[in-house]
Each structure stands twice: as structure tokens, then as C-alpha cells.
Amino acid sequence: MPSGARERLYRTEAVVLRRHDFGEADRLLTLYTPGLGKIRVLAKGVRKPRSRKAGHVELFTHNTLLIAKGRNLDVVTQADTINTFLALRTELSRTSCGYYVAEVVDKFTEEREENGRVFDLLVHTLAWLGEAEDTDLVLRYFELHLLDYVGYRPQLFHCVSCKRRVGSTAALFSPAQGGLLCLECGRVERGGRDIPARVLETLRHLQTKGYGQCRGLSVDQQTHYELQNTMRQYIIYLLERGLKSADFLDTLRREAGLGAQALERR
């Protein structure tokens, strides 16, 4: 291969975060990579019935890609699948969690900003979601560690105003302040909401421990709801918008709850 051609090609691992139809047979892909961060590339001809690359550029797929530099958009020339995360595609609830993870990574990252820790977390989270009994716990672990890696780690041990250490039994969480407020500062600062001790203790554990030490946590339904609500409010504040995938997850859970109630009444 001529040296000029080699210079125009690069190889990278990538996870497909988003894809959009482009032209008559192409797709525009948003990828997250370990060395380049988030990039957008064109996969030509993948919507044709006989395309060899079509199966390699599905959502959430972890691939090794050979990409050619283009004038406006780089172009995928070769794709080899590392992991399809097949277990994510067998249940709608797990698939929806995958959409949520992909959307959160997309919204919190800028193009061409390298962050290898985000890539590793993304790949591991997609695998965990396919095998975990408690996918909500996986999502909370993912949220806390992603926020840490992109510079928005919530302060869960000290008051963000007076800097004093805060116990777990009397604290407020302020999305606007980025963490805990002690009761005294909470009387002055606006926007804080009570955070129950069991919720704060769980968040602290998830934030400071590895996944292996968190996967066995037993969390009741009410605590799950409060964990999700706390993290959701913080994420919405940071992004200044809601997430479509989060709304869809909420709809699925409401429908599942209604179905369970109907079965109980029989």
C-alpha cells in the first residue's frame, strides 16, 4: 500500500452510540473510541441488502474499524465485530438501558476529546447490563463514574458550601451546587432536597467502590426510585434538558408496574 494511502487510513476500536440514515444507502454513525473520543463517520452502502458491514454497525456494537479520512466525513472501509452484546437485544428493558447509556455518553462528551476511561466504562457497562439481575444498580454505578470521568463528580461526603464533612443522617442534595449541603447551609442555599440516609450511603458506595464490590448490593424498590430521582435531577440540571431514553425507561417501568398489579388482582 502506498505511503499516502496508509496516512489516510486509521484503525480504532469503537462503540456505536447513534446512527442515522444518510442518502439512499448510507448511514451516519456516531462512535465512541478509546483514543479519539467521540467521532462521526460515514458507513457507505450499509443499508443495501448485501452489505457486509451492516451487521457490524448496529447500535451498541463494539467493533474494530478501519476508517479512511475524508474531506468532510471519514468513511468506514472495514469493520470487525468484537462484541455485539447480544444479551442486551433479547429483552426490551435491557435494550432500553443500552439506549440510555449510549445517550448519556453522547450528551456528556464532545467530539474528538479523548477519554479512555469513558470508553472502558461504556464497554463494561454494556456487558454488565446484559448479565445483571439489577440493571438499575448498573445504571447508577455508570452515571456516578461517568460524571467523575467528565468532570462533574457530585460531592457526596462534604458540604459543598462550608466544606465540613456531612453524615448520612442529615443532609440535602443540591443539583445546582453539585452535591451535598449540610442542614445549616441548606437553610441558606436554595434548591436542596432531603436525601435519605440509605440513599446517600448507597450513592457513596457506588461512587467509591469498584463494580465487583457493588454488584451484590441489595436495594429495595423505594430506594431505587430515590436513587434514580436524585441522579436524574442532577443530570437534567447539568444538561439543561431531559433524556428521551430516560423517559422511555420510565414508561416501560410504569407499564410493567401496572401489569404486575393486574396480575395480583386476578
Topology of this structure?
Layout: H1 3-8, E1 9-22, E2 26-33, E3 37-43, E4 62-68, E5 74-83, H2 92-108, H3 116-131, H4 135-149, E6 172-174, E7 179-181, H5 183-186, E8 193-194, H6 197-208, H7 211-214, H8 221-239, H9 244-265
Parallel strand pairs: 3-5
Antiparallel strand pairs: 1-2, 1-4, 2-3, 4-5, 6-7, 6-8
Helix pairs in contact: 2-3, 2-4, 2-9, 3-4, 4-8, 6-8
Characterization of the model:
The chain is an alpha+beta fold. It has 2 domains: 3-84, OB fold (Dihydrolipoamide Acetyltransferase, E2P), CATH 2.40.50; 112-265, Recombination protein O, C-terminal domain (de novo design (two linked rop proteins)). 43% of the residues lie in helices and 20% in strands. The protein has 9 helices and 8 strands. The protein has helices at residues 3-8, 92-108, 116-131, 135-149, 183-186, 197-208, 211-214, 221-239, 244-265, and strands at residues 9-22, 26-33, 37-43, 62-68, 74-83, 172-174, 179-181, 193-194. The strands form 2 sheets. It has a 5-stranded mixed barrel. Strands 7-6-8 form a 3-stranded antiparallel sheet. A hairpin with a 4-residue loop joins strand 6 (172-174) and strand 7. Helix 2 packs antiparallel against helix 9 and helix 6 (197-208) crosses helix 8.
